[in-house]
Amino acid sequence: MIAFMGLFESKPLLATVLGRAFRCLVCDHAWFRPREVKLNSTGAELFGLAWANASALGLVCDECGYVHEFAGRNRPQLWNEKQGYPEGAE
Q: What domain of life does the native source organism fall in (predicted)?
């Protein structure tokens, strides 16, 4: 598994969710670029505390740009091209 690579990862990554290969819900593409996505709330924005909001992992489809958001403890695992998917994930 790849640790979160930072905001500007240069190469797209494969993803698994709950051990299954994940593909874009819009175009069925398999490659994504991870991004942290803030889950803003009105109260925090109103009082200038947006930095304190929870965040999610966003997987930006490398083909169509659709952003898939994952919050909570079962976040996707990321894999590079050399590793490929783990056995049984496809």
A: Bacteria
Map out the domains of the chain as residue ranges: 14-68
Q: Identify whether the C-beta of residue 68 lies closer than 8 Å to the C-beta of residue 78.
A: no
pLDDT digits (tens, 9 = 90+) for 2-57: 444 455 556 899 999 999 999 999 999 999 999 988 776 566 555 666 555 678 89
Question: Do residues 13 and 80 lie in contact, with contact meaning Cβ atoms separated by under 8 Å?
Answer: yes
pLDDT at 72 over 60: yes
